[in-house]
Amino acid sequence: MPNLDKFLQEPHAYTLQRDFLQCTGPDTGDFLQGQLSQDIEALSDLGSAWSFLLNPNGKFCTWLRITRLSSEEYMLDMEQGFGQAALERLNRFKIRVNCDIENTQSQIVRILGRGANEIKGESHKQSIAADAGWQTLEGFDLLGPGVVKPDGCSEGNEDDYEYIRIFHAVPKMGTELTEGVIPAETNLVPRGVSFTKGCYTGQELVARLDSRGNNVPKHLRKISSPGACIVGSEITVEGKKVGVVTSAVPSGDGSIGLGYVSRSLEIPGMAEIDGFSASITSASD
What we know:
CATH architecture of the largest domain: 2-Layer Sandwich
Number of strands: 14
CATH topology of the largest domain: Alpha-Beta Plaits
Order of helices and strands: HEHEEEHEHEEEHHHEEEEEE
Shape: globular
Structural class: alpha+beta
Number of domains: 2
Low-confidence stretches: none
Oligomer: single chain
CATH superfamily of the largest domain: Aminomethyltransferase beta-barrel domains
Helix content: 10-25%
Number of helices: 7
Radius of gyration: 19 Å
Distance between the termini: 22 Å
């Protein structure tokens, strides 16, 4: 288990592989405005925002970041392996639209931890510094060709990153964010949805659930157990299944994790996972 104290005292850099969609053409801004849940008209050059790309039924396709490079050029980046699905989804609605989309891959450097914002200003003279999108941990990403770890931060590793991701309840594509998930079940709506912009594909379900207080059957939750949580394990209360573990890592003598849990379990609450009691808490705090 990583020493969390060191991540509270100084920023750490993590090199991540991401998929990128390079979108160019005179119709690009209007086209993406009608496809993404975020209001991209509010972006200035080199500004970025996080957004859902939804299917017409309002269910999940991709969680991504959009960066405006100019009035006719935008860059979408998302976790590795999901760029092709996003490209195919956008192309289905790209009819008589002057917008070319190219799928590429590149490294980014993500800086996380206390003090990250202090080095941000000196870190992006040759790159783009964009919001990392974590609610409860200070951080930013460096985007662009040949990005390197900036001075003033230590090198982090993959195991550290996964532990911190789960500890801070950051959902991941392919685990928490999968086909069939709807935005209201996640903790991402406040960051990824504009309720004041015009229409976009998939908006109806998002707006309807918001008007009803996002009262969906299940929600993403944080898990803490004295036992070893295993991805795919059932979360039960009095023998009744109320959820499933989607991510888990060792923590001390036990483990922490994430999972979707039925709204029938009052939060904070207790459940059972693989014979051990488990604390279930909000993923939004």
